[in-house]
Amino acid sequence: MEKLIRKLRQTQELSKSEWIQLIENRTPEIAEYLFSQAREVREEHYGKDVYIRGLIEFTNYCKNDCRYCGIRKSNQNAARYRLGREDILECCKQGYELGFRTFVLQGGEDGYFTDERLSEVVVSIKEMYPDCAITLSVGEKTLESYQRFYDAGAERYLLRHETYNAEHYQKLHPSILSAENRQQCLWDLKKIGYQVGTGFMVGSPYQTAQHLAEDMLFIKKLNPQMVGIGPFIPHKDTVFANEAAGTLELTLYMLGLLRLMLPKALLPATTALGTIDLHGREKGILAGANVVMPNLSPISVREKYMLYNDKISTGDEAAENLENLKMRMKNIGYQVVVSRGDSLNKGGK
Ligand code: SAH
Q1: Considering 23, 99, 102, 267, which has the largest number of Cβ atoms within 10 A of its Cβ?
Q2: 160 lines ligand 1 (CB under 6 A)
Q3: pLDDT for position 346
Q4: Where along the chain do its domains lie?
Q5: What is the rounded distance in angstroms from the CA atom of residue 50 to the CA atom of residue 47?
Q6: Least confident of 3-12, 102-111, 293-302
Q7: 142 in Cβ contact with 112 (< 8 Å)
Q8: Is the distance from CB of 204 to CB of 307 less than 8 angstroms?
Q9: Residue nearest to atom 13 of ligand 1 (CA)
Q10: Which tens digits make up the pLDDT trace of 241-288?
Q11: How big is the CA angle at 41 (ends 136 and 214), to the nearest 5 degrees?
């Protein structure tokens, strides 16, 4: 196994069967070896810096019905909300004062936010904070819509492919959604010139090592600037309420592998990782991650953006508790920096 990890570090790629082998035969010792390699690679490029992004969850209305997601359309128990432009600008103001230079606007696929409305929000943020990067994460749109947001000033887009395998994708989503379209969106975003983030859930229902291997091959090919992964966590009002959650252990392992495969990519230690383990964020950083995305949404709506059970939102992952996060990072030898935190992976189109 160590030999495969060395090969991965040297060549930054593996065959499908090698990926499967590396995933299926992992042990705690192999994982430790992987993490030490991943930290070395991360430090070669990013030193000990940890980039932060202010996450603004601006709407939980969604027209989609993804089987795993707590804000799926058919969840009648979800208390719906959306933030207006002024609310969003207020979040940015607070975030800017705290030292955030990237704002991530994430939400469900909410018809209220037409291309025009969302573009206006982007333009307003850009006007007030020209030194900040704006990231959008609002799901699948047409190339034309993506182009409009880009022209308005959004430079980055997060859209996890969720799972590459089409059959697996179908088990997680309603039939009107497809892996193919999701992936096409990512290629469209790249073509326009966005810095793109993709990713997948670890331990989602029916996931196998083969699926994960396919995810790695796809990500290698896409060559995104960022890859966000987190454990699947069940939500009580979804089809998968009684499914097992993904594990911290496998998520960290996949993070380490991603760092070796894409040395210069941005890898967030995600909220889901922080939710399944009290020190998930720190463990993620020590496995090769280099980004954290504290929550900047108004406190009054945070509980409503409940993608999965017990999603954390007011502890050290909250923007207002940034000092605690800084301390946590310092305690493990890393430092939070005030910066746009652009990816060193230029990606190419
Ligand atoms: N509507 C946007 C944002 C989706 S929410 C989009 O389509 O991209 C952001 C991410 O949360 C999703 O991409 C998914 O990977 C993750 N997520 C949703 N439900 C989850 C769950 N139950 N457990 C873990 N992660 C989940």
Answers
A1: 267
A2: yes
A3: 84
A4: 36-337
A5: 9
A6: 293-302
A7: no
A8: no
A9: 160
A10: 999 999 999 999 999 999 999 999 999 999 999 999 999 999 999 999
A11: 60
Our answer on whether the CB atom of 233 is closer than 6 Å to any ligand 1 atom is yes
Ramachandran sector of residue 137 (left: φ over 0; alpha: ψ -120 to 50; beta: rest): beta
Q: What's the pTM?
A: 0.97
> What secondary structure letter does DSSP report for 199?
E
Ligand 1 contact via 68 beta carbon (within 6 Å): yes
Contacts with 42 (C-beta within 8 Å, 6 or more apart), sequence order? 259, 263, 288, 289, 290
For ligand 1, pick from 59, 69, 156 the residue to mutate: most ligand atoms within 8 Å of CB: 69
Ligand 1 neighbour 274 (Cβ under 6 A): no
* Most informative mutation of 53, 201, 233, 277 for ligand 1 (most atoms within 8 A of CB): 201
> Residue 319 in contact with residue 95, Cβ under 8 Å?
yes
Rounded-to-10 torsion of CA 178, 183, 185, 188: -150
pLDDT recorded at residue 348: 59
Any residues with CB less than 8 A from the CB of 18 and at least 6 apart, and which?
A: 4, 7
Ligand 1 centroid – CA 28 distance (Å): 28
Q: Which CATH number fits domain 36-337: 3.30.1120.10, 2.60.120.200, 3.90.10.10, 3.20.20.70?
A: 3.20.20.70
CA angle 106, 152, 120 (to 5 degrees): 70
Q: Whose CA is nearest to atom 7 of ligand 1?
A: 139
Helices (H), 12-114: 16-24, 28-46, 85-98
Q: What is the rounded CA–CA span in Å between residue 130 and residue 227?
A: 25
Task: Mention every residue, 6+ apart, whose C-beta is less than 8 A from residue 291.
Answer: 50, 51, 52, 53, 226, 266, 267, 268, 269, 341
Q: Which atom of ligand 1 is nearest to the CA of 231?
A: 24
Give, in order, the Cα–Cα distances in Å from 314 to each of 196, 274, 293, 300, 325.
28, 12, 13, 11, 12
What does the pLDDT look like over 144-196, one tens digit per residue? 999 999 999 999 999 999 999 999 999 999 999 999 999 999 999 999 999 99
